[in-house]
Amino acid sequence: MSEVAVRPDSQGKVRDIYDLGDRLLIVATDRISAFDYILKDEIPHKGQVLTQLSRFWFEKFSDLVPNHMLSCDTADLPEEFRQYADYLAGRMMIVKKAKPILIECIVRGYLTGSGKKTYDANGTVCGITLPAGLVEASKLPEPIFTPSTKAAIGDHDENISYERLVELQGEEVASTLRDLSLKIYAHAAEYALTRGIIIADTKFEFGYIDGRITLIDECITPDSSRFWPAEGYKAGVVQPSYDKQFVRDWLKANWDFTGEPPTLPADVIRKTTEKYTEAYELLTGKAFDPAGRD
Asked: What is the DSSP letter of 81?
């Protein structure tokens, strides 16, 4: 549960958003979603990892693509939020307001998940034909851009072709979204390998700020990406991961997908926190500090 008594102006699966007039306050909670359900359990420190990893990437790639981040410092909070500074430290981000582009910009560098299912069925991923002979976790010949529509909470995102994206957004916007997504992924994947992590896939969101397409929401976190350890990587088997695939796997083994999702065991919650914080520490090279102090 949120520890901020002020009612958010809007909520996502994980984030609470407060309208500050010319800015937004985004608070990453410890909620976790899987299979389009928000689970009953929270993952301690998860929100702080999401915010601090996003901050890391926003700062790292600020010359590559503009982003919406203004501050992660509780000293910049409006007066009415300062009483919650202890809770908000490390999990808050004040951002520029953007007009969101309602498209999930997904980049896949490896074959897994839903892409593996469609590849096995017809040799394609989101309508893109791939070479024969690929197996689970195969590295793709080159990363592919596979957009989807952004669904409301409780609904399912729908994969769409690039041609459909052009119909929805126009050629100029569609090509900009594709090219930015592939460029960010390429730089991030190259860097992550030097830190011992494979970024198998990830998603980005963009919006307009002052008429310019800008990176918004989160960036390359365990919620928006699949992180695999580079050590021991071998195509043909399901990879261990640093992300919420750990929760997905437990649910698939212990739930028939009818009714509400079951409560997560304490050890699954603990291990998931460990996975998130380990990913942060490997990628940033810094010890995880929940309060986000440099």
From this structure: G
